[in-house]
Amino acid sequence: METGAVSTSRERTRARIVEVAARLLREQGAAAVTVRAVAQEAGLQAPTIYRFFEDKDALLDAVAEHVLATYVADKVRTASLADPVEDLRAGWRTQIEFGLANGALFTLMSDLTRTRPSPAAEAGYEVLRARVHRIAAAGRLRVPEDRAIALLRAAGTGAVLTILSTPPEDRDPTLADDMLTAVLGVLLNDAPAVPPDNATALAVAFRAVVPTLPTLTPAERSLLGEWLTR
Questions:
Q1: How far apart are the C-alpha atoms of 110 and 92, rounded to whole Å?
Q2: Cα–Cα distance, 230 to 227 (Å, whole number)
Q3: pLDDT in tens, the chain (230 residues)
Q4: Cα 150 to Cα 89: distance, rounded to the nearest angstrom
Q5: I want to staple 139 with a disulfide (CB 3.0 to 4.6 A). Which of 26, 54, 112, 194 is the partner?
């Protein structure tokens, strides 16, 4: 019983530390999230922070995990739209809005020198992957799924960072939408169905449904997917 109480107390203390650090990050930026500042705001001694996090980077990772996990959970709970392309557009708008509303966190997570994997970020990637897969299965994708995902991630990150680097009064509210329109022009077929003479689109669409074919063995599915990728 006592062990459970201690565990609960530790969880509450850790949660308070993360929440305080998240607020400092949101209001003052990453530089403000120091062990001393977080401890003072949380009403704790600085050594207490180190009982939960080995250093500032570990604390920032926990903050990112906390904020992103909530965001990703909201995305997963959002019902998919019938049209996979419109579903992707809706996801794009949510991503842009999140990035602009959490500029310090978004910039931190976009820092390529931070190599620690984030389960929440990976979950967000899986949401994007599923959306792109739906488009491929519908015959709308003219490039391989991996390339489409890479282009969308690069465009989304670039759009948010560009907007954040611009003074608020000079920001172009249409930039992110125009960026998506440009990328979709590269990714999508014009028609809502696979054109019969577009071999690449047919291959991409077929590859998207290969894993669901019940008459093939796992080895056959793998081989067929490899052929279609070529």
A1: 17
A2: 5
A3: 456 666 788 999 999 999 999 999 989 988 888 999 999 999 999 999 999 998 888 888 888 888 887 777 666 655 567 899 999 999 999 899 989 988 988 888 887 776 666 677 787 889 899 999 999 999 999 999 999 999 999 999 999 999 999 999 999 999 999 999 999 999 998 755 444 455 565 566 556 655 665 665 666 556 655 655 65
A4: 16
A5: 194
Measured CA angle at 70 (ends 162, 41), to 5 deg: 85
Q: Report the candidate in 172, 181, 26, 189 with the shortest Cα–Cα distance to residue 92.
A: 181
Do the beta carbons of residue 62 and residue 118 sit within 8 Å?
Answer: no
CA–CA dist 158, 23 (Å, integer): 25
Amino acid at 180: L
Residue 135 · residue 84 · CB < 8 Å = yes
CB-based contact 139:193 (threshold 8 Å):
yes
Q: What's 81's DSSP letter?
A: P
Report in angstroms the alpha-carbon separations of 150 from 32, 52, 208: 32, 35, 17
Amino acid 228 reads L
Tell me the residue ranges of DSSP E strands in the chain: none
Which is it for the CA torsion 227, 187, 75, 209, positive or negative?
negative
Q: Model-level pTM?
A: 0.72
Tokens of 5: 């109480």
